[in-house]
Design brief:
Strand order of the largest sheet: 1-2-7-8-9
Number of helices: 2
Oligomer: single chain
Shape: elongated
Number of strands: 9
Helix content: under 10%
Structural class: mainly beta
Radius of gyration: 25 Å
Amino acid sequence: MSHLVYTTPELRGHSTLVRTVLGGWELSGIITLQTGSPFGISGGNGNNNSGSLQFGDRADVVLGQPLNVHQGSKAQWLAHYLNSAAFVSNAAGTFGNSGKNLLRGPGIASSDLAFVKNWKVLDRYGVQFRWEMFNAFNHASFATPNNDASSSNFGQITSIGPIAPRVMQGGLKLSF
């Protein structure tokens, strides 16, 4: 995560109108780049093929099958984030042999920006205009793929992730 704050020049040598409208704006931003969350592959029968009633079973790994995580174009990895043939539901009476959190979901790339302008009125009052954008460049955020080896959409990403599409808000504040 990285952040920035920049204030434009106040344009003191220019007319009152130019100084008031164009001078002294603040630009601030936060840039977030993160790897995806770790996840494992769940076993079958509601995650309880072992019969232990712990609901923590993991799938069995199919030997010789590559994982092929996050391969190809965005459309390809949304439909097949991982090779679904690399896992099968755990055998009855076993806990499964795949590792816990052995894969990582899609990463996050997001930028939040704010434009702020402050004015003084009659040397006693302050007016602030603020325009904020969350996920300003509208980068798509994707959830972890379906990790249930017995599901028909196993390995597919079917929903958005933790970062919502672009959201903007404006505000005006009077201080006295």
